[in-house]
Amino acid sequence: MALKHKLAEWLKRYLPAEVLSTLVTLLAAWLAHKQGGSVLAVALISTWSGNITYFGYILIADILRSVAAVKKAGEKYTLASATVNLRSLVIEFGLAEALDSLLIRPLVMYYVPYMLSDFNTGIIVAKLSADVIFYIPAIIGYEMNKKYLKKAA
């Protein structure tokens, strides 16, 4: 498959979740900062708020696609189908998320605003920098999942 088609596929999969997650991340960072939260609290709150939003969106979208597919096949969405959806999510994002949530994103969300001496710009630059690092293993996981593992029908 041509790179152009892959990019379009990846954008279709990740962009809506990314846009929503970005809005939530920025809102959470702003609210935590305005409430007098420490830089560490802002970094952690914005990281986890964005992550919950991102993965919640992806999981719900995957489940809705699976439900539609099994309904079209005249079957029911079962616990086994849900297990496949969850397994696929872990394979696609497990390594990327572990690195991102536990190390990379909190560090850049903590240090970049400080280094740039501008909280708002720093949060945006930090988020975008962490996203670039996150998507490398995530896309590898997505492609491996599609190629080697059965998706939920």
Provide a brief overview of the structure:
With 153 residues, the protein is mostly helical. It has helices at residues 3-34, 39-72, 79-116, 119-148. Helix 2 runs antiparallel to helix 3.
**Helix percentage:** over 70%
Low-confidence stretches at least 5 residues in length (pLDDT < 50)? none
Shape: elongated
Q: Biggest β-sheet: count, sense, barrel?
A: none
Secondary structure: number of strands = 0
Order of helices and strands: HHHH
The radius of gyration computed from the alpha-carbon positions, rounded to a whole number of angstroms, is 17 Å
**How confident overall, as mean pLDDT?**
89
Judged by helices, strands and strand pairing, the structural class is mainly alpha
Please count the helical segments. Answer: 4
Strand content: under 5%
- Taken together, the total number of domains comes to 1
Distance between the termini: 23 Å
